[in-house]
TrEMBL record:
InterPro entries: AB_hydrolase_fold (IPR029058), TEII (IPR012223), Thioesterase (IPR001031)
Gene3D superfamilies associated with the record: alpha/beta hydrolase
Name of the protein: Alpha/beta fold hydrolase
Organism: Streptomyces violaceus
Cross-referenced PANTHER family: S-ACYL FATTY ACID SYNTHASE THIOESTERASE, MEDIUM CHAIN (PTHR11487:SF0), THIOESTERASE (PTHR11487)
GO molecular function annotation: hydrolase activity
Amino acid sequence: MPHSGGGPNRYLRLVGDLPDDVEIRGLTLPGRERRRTEPPGATLDEVLSSLATIPSPEVPTLILGHSLGATIGLHLAHALGEHCVGLIASGQEPRDGAGWLSEHSSDEDVLRLLELGGDMPSVFMADTGWRTAILDNLRADLRLGAESVERSRGVRLDVPITVLCGCEDRLIDQEALAGWSAYSAAECEVHVLSGGHFALFDPVNRPRYVEAIERHFSVIHAR
C-alpha cells in the first residue's frame, strides 16, 4: 500500500528479495501510474472492494503499507479477516483524529508535506502540469486518509503489527508509534531505522523490511 501521491511500482525494489513463493500485489489508486489518466479520488469502500479482484484471497496475506498506505492497510487487514497474517505499518503514526492537513488546506501547506517528506524533486514543482497533478492526487489522498482515520476507531486485528520508521522522519511523532498496539490483540513491535520519511527505500534498511515480511509469514509455516 503506497504513500500519499505514490504508486506501487517503486516498492518492487523494496520487496524484490522475497522468496519466489510470495506473490506481490500493489494498490494503484486513480491518478497515478497505470491509472494516471483517471481522475484522482477513491473512497475507502472502493479501495476495500478491490480485494474482490484478488484471485485467491484465501491465501495467507500480509499487508505492508507506508504512510497513508499504513492507515489504509489497517482496514484491508481487517477486511481480510482470518486470511491476514499481519500488518507492517511503515512511516505512519496511529491516528485517532484529523491531522494538521486536509483536502481544503492551501497549496503551500500541501506542498510543505512534500518538503517535510523530502522525496519530491524540484523539477516537478517547476512544471505547472506536474504540480497540478501532484496537488490533485495529494488532496484526494488527504480525503481518503481522513475517512480511513475516522473509520479506524474500534478496528482491532487478531494478528501482529510491526511498525517501522526512520529516526529522522519529520512527519512522525516517534513517541506515538507504540499506539499501534491499540489496533491489535496480538503483539506490536516498533523498530526505528536510520533515515527520514522514506527510509524504507534506503538499501541499508531494505533487509529490515524483508526480515519483517518473512517473520510474519514464518508464523504460518510454524503452524
